[in-house]
Design brief:
The chain has six helices and ten strands. It is an alpha+beta fold and about 280 residues long. It folds into two domains: about 80 residues, no CATH class; about 170 residues, DD-peptidase/beta-lactamase superfamily (Beta-lactamase, 3-Layer(aba) Sandwich). A hairpin with a 5-residue loop joins strand 2 and strand 3.
């Protein structure tokens, strides 16, 4: 079987340093490996497993000490994958959003344990959306929505489904309705819907869209120039494609809306800047 997904791996090495002159990485057990030797070992694994593309980043405490991409960004074109190529960030979007919310909480702009309903002028079920299906209308008769807090949204304990069109048994229902699986704050269940709900509240509180907030507070300060929650013209010809298990190229799917739960595009080089920042705090 040929593996289709691109793998973006970050390895953290604590307590050891890089000898820059000799281009060596120190392992956790104290042993050393030359960059050139590491390159060969990884390439062998990629070739053996028939991985289409692979990006590896190694951190020494809060600093990147090794970063390299292997394989292709597009198998048909045989374009060499680079660490500056744009990946679909998927749920890495949530990590950036979580940090953003943490900053707002630190500044007193939002209280993580205050019901988010209290930040809104209308009940959550009456919120208006350009895409009506994004709304929470059918929670109108279930007042448990009044208990949801930002902390619950970030910790996946709202009781809302991951996505309204996918059941907990992974059954796809195109006309799925939003509903609670359990009382907010009582259990864990991964929820993109909860993350999206918090995004709407953050945008209401700040009067700014998520892309603007992320650009002002994270992307620009960290010089993450090739990262965005929405497709950008500057990303054209820099995307790496997905592939099937037979390594058939999948056409890139660019989100048409900003979504805290999963619309972000980024590069291994850019996302490593974010991780370095987090690790240095």
């Amino acid at each position: 079987m040929k593996y289709s997904i691109y793998i973006f791996v970050a390895i953290f090495l604590f307590g050891f340093s890089l000898q820059k002159g000799n281009q060596r990485v120190y392992r956790l057990d104290g042993s050393q490996i030359l960059y050139s030797e590491l390159d060969k070992k990884v390439q062998t694994l990629v070739d053996t497993a028939k991985v289409t593309g692979f990006s590896l980043t190694i951190f020494n405490r809060d600093t990147v000490v090794y970063q390299k991409a292997f394989g292709y960004s597009n198998y048909n074109l045989k374009d060499s994958l680079e660490v500056e190529d744009v990946f679909y960030g998927a749920s890495l979007s949530k990590s950036v959003f979580g940090y953003l919310v943490a900053e707002l909480a630190h500044e007193g702009i939002i209280d993580l344990d205050k019901p988010i309903q209290e930040y809104l002028d209308v009940p959550i079920p009456e919120m208006k959306f350009e895409k009506e299906w994004r709304g929470f209308t059918n929670l109108a008769d279930d007042e448990r929505y009044k208990k949801i807090t930002a902390r619950m949204c970030l910790s996946h304990t709202t009781g809302l489904p991951n996505w309204r069109w996918i059941s907990r048994t992974n059954e796809f229902t195109p006309e799925g309705k939003i509903h609670f699986y359990f009382d907010p704050g009582t259990q864990y269940s991964y929820s993109g819907e909860g993350m999206m709900l918090l995004q709407y509240v953050i945008e209401e509180i700040t009067g700014k869209g998520l892309e603007q907030l992320a650009r002002e507070r994270i992307f620009d300060p960290l010089k993450m120039d090739m990262t965005s929650y929405i497709g950008q013209q500057r990303f054209e010809n820099k995307y790496c494609n997905g592939h099937t298990t037979e390594q058939k190229v999948i056409k890139k799917d660019v989100s048409d809306e900003v979504a805290a739960a999963g619309s972000m595009s980024t590069t291994p080089a850019d996302y490593s800047k974010f991780m370095e920042h987090i690790l240095s705090l």
